[in-house]
């Protein structure tokens, strides 16, 4: 078919609001698209003129609808504010699509295939604005660091990429930094990306990656630092991700108003290392995490994050506290302290003290451990005493001590009497004259050896000896005088002097 004939058919379909179907109603195999000939060829310049309204035809409100066409040349819709929808279904665009700074009421690219011949992305929709953009089942192949599909700074009502296959061997598969989507981003039902899905600082109503397979051999599979989500994030229902350093899934600093549904059973590292799987430092979420138990969450935070951070534990504890799960809150905070000891970079003495408090008090969250430790110490102290007392060990010891004391007391008396009888020079019966003596105890009241005194040869002070308790009268006892504080003269020896 000549170019004029194809152009007229398209103009008639746009005027009548019908779909120009060049497949004859048959199913399209994307692998056969490169072999399509002139009978399916439509000029990219013709479509651009129709979107701009430069052709002498009144476009139906249904807009431009084309199926099964090979579009020659790069379709340039940049900086165009169109008034009608554009639908390119099952089409082949070997040179790609440019939508930069454009505006359309709606854009449908379902099951189409895109390529590129330069460093520009096959689908470049940077700062593009539309109420709905659907790319269900599209196939995009790229070799550019700019991304296979670039939606950086775009503003969309909804983005649907269910079943799409985006492959980029030199950069991200989906580059959507600062993307704003009012309702939701849907990457479900077999969506596959080779290259990172990048949503840094994006703001979306909902992110659903159920059943998606993300793979990036050169970095994170999902890179969404600073992502803001008005409702929930779904990484479940067969979600698979494979990536490398620093983590396979990066949600650092993300803010999620609802729940974070995360299933990491099929999240792996492409280098087969046991490194980080997720990075959720400074990530906040409003409801309890779903699709994963508390024990699995704590295991992820402890062993599958890039490093220790307190905020993920505190955030998890906050949502459990809001739900009234006090026991879970204690478990989370204790797990945080253990991770801090292991990876928190504490000094050795701080680490030792933390381990002690963990053993004795459960880091302060289980004070009953201190009572249990006290009872253990008391039991360890009392039980030996009870066992020894039951066998007579304590009584036997008391008797031995009493006997030793009596023997010492008798020896004291005998020694003192012997010294008094023999004198200090060893002569029998000689008493060295001295005017003073010392009374040392209640059993030494009398004078001489028989009374158990120490003899006259042991002066303490001139003319005085200590007053013993038995020398005090009841009156002096009541006055509280010290029985050993006063000295009395020795009555045996008269004082010397002139």
Task: Please characterize this protein's 3D structure.
- This protein is of the alpha/beta class and 498 residues long.
- It has 9 helices and 39 strands.
- The strands form 6 sheets. A 10-stranded parallel sheet has the order 1-3-6-10-14-18-22-26-30-34.
- It starts with a helix and ends in a 10-residue tail after the last strand.
| C-alpha-based Rg, rounded | 49 Å
Detail the poorly predicted runs. Answer: 408-465
Mean pLDDT: 78
Shape: elongated
Helix content: 25-40%
How is this structure best summarized?
This protein is of the alpha/beta class. Helix content is 27%, strand content 19%.
Characteristics:
498 residues; alpha/beta
Please render the helix and strand layout as text.
Blueprint: H1 3-16, E1 20-21, E2 41-43, H2 44-52, E3 64-67, E4 70-72, E5 75-76, E6 86-89, E7 92-93, E8 97-98, E9 103-104, E10 107-108, E11 113-114, E12 123-124, E13 129-130, E14 133-134, E15 139-142, E16 149-150, E17 155-156, E18 159-160, E19 165-168, E20 174-175, E21 180-181, E22 185-186, E23 192-194, E24 197-198, E25 203-204, E26 207-208, E27 213-215, E28 222-223, E29 228-229, E30 233-235, E31 240-243, E32 249-250, E33 255-256, E34 260-262, E35 267-269, E36 278-279, E37 284-285, H3 294-303, H4 310-322, H5 326-343, H6 348-361, H7 368-390, H8 393-422, E38 465-466, H9 474-478, E39 487-488
Parallel strand pairs: 1-3, 2-4, 3-6, 5-8, 6-10, 7-11, 8-12, 9-13, 10-14, 11-15, 12-16, 13-17, 14-18, 15-19, 16-20, 17-21, 18-22, 19-23, 20-24, 21-25, 22-26, 23-27, 24-28, 25-29, 26-30, 27-31, 28-32, 29-33, 30-34, 31-35, 32-36, 33-37
Antiparallel strand pairs: 38-39
Helix pairs in contact: 4-5, 5-6
């Amino acid at each position: 078919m000549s170019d004029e004939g194809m152009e007229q058919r398209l103009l008639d379909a746009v005027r009548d609001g019908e779909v120009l179907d060049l497949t004859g109603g048959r199913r399209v195999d994307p692998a056969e698209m490169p072999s399509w000939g002139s009978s399916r060829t439509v000029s990219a310049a013709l479509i651009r003129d129709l979107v701009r309204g430069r052709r002498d035809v009144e476009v139906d409100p249904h807009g431009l609808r084309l199926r099964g066409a090979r579009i020659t040349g790069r379709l340039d819709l940049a900086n165009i504010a169109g008034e009608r929808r554009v639908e390119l279904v099952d089409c082949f665009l070997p040179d790609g699509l440019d939508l930069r700074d454009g505006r359309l009421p709606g854009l449908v690219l379902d099951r189409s295939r895109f390529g590129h011949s330069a460093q520009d992305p096959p689908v470049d929709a940077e700062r593009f604005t539309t109420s709905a953009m659907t790319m269900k089942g599209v196939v995009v192949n790229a070799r550019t660091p700019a991304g296979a599909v670039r939606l950086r700074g775009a503003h969309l009502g909804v983005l649907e990429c269910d079943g799409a296959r985006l492959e980029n061997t030199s950069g991200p598969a989906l580059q959507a930094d600062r993307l704003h989507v009012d309702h939701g981003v849907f990457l479900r039902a077999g969506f596959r990306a080779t290259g990172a899905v990048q949503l840094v600082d994006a703001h979306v109503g909902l992110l659903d990656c159920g059943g998606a397979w993300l793979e990036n051999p050169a970095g994170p599979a999902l890179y969404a630092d600073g992502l803001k989500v008005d409702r929930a994030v779904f990484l479940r229902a067969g979600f698979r991700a494979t990536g490398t350093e620093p983590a396979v899934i990066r949600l650092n600093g993300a803010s999620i108003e609802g729940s974070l549904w995360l299933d990491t059973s099929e999240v792996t590292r492409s280098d087969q290392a046991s490194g980080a799987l997720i990075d959720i430092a400074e990530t906040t979420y409003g409801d309890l995490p779903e699709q994963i138990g508390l024990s699995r969450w704590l295991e992820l935070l402890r062993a599958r994050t890039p490093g220790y951070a307190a905020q993920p534990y505190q955030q998890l504890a906050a949502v459990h506290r809001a739900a009234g799960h006090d026991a879970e809150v204690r478990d989370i905070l204790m797990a945080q302290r253990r991770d801090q000891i292991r990876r928190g970079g504490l000094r050795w003495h701080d680490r030792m003290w933390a381990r002690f408090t963990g053993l004795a008090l459960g880091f302060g969250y289980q004070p009953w451990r201190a009572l249990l430790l006290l009872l253990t110490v008391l039991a360890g102290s009392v039980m030996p005493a009870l066992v020894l007392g039951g066998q007579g060990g304590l009584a036997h010891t008391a008797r031995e001590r009493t006997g030793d004391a009596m023997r010492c007391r008798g020896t004291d008396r005998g020694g003192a009497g012997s010294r008094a009888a023999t004198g200090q020079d060893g002569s029998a019966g000689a008493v060295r004259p001295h005017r003073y003596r010392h009374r040392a105890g209640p059993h030494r009241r009398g004078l001489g050896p028989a009374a158990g005194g120490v003899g006259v040869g042991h002066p303490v002070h001139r003319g005085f000896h200590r007053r013993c308790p038995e020398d005090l009268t009841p009156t002096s006892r009541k006055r509280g005088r010290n029985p050993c504080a006063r000295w009395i003269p020795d009555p045996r020896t008269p004082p010397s002097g002139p």
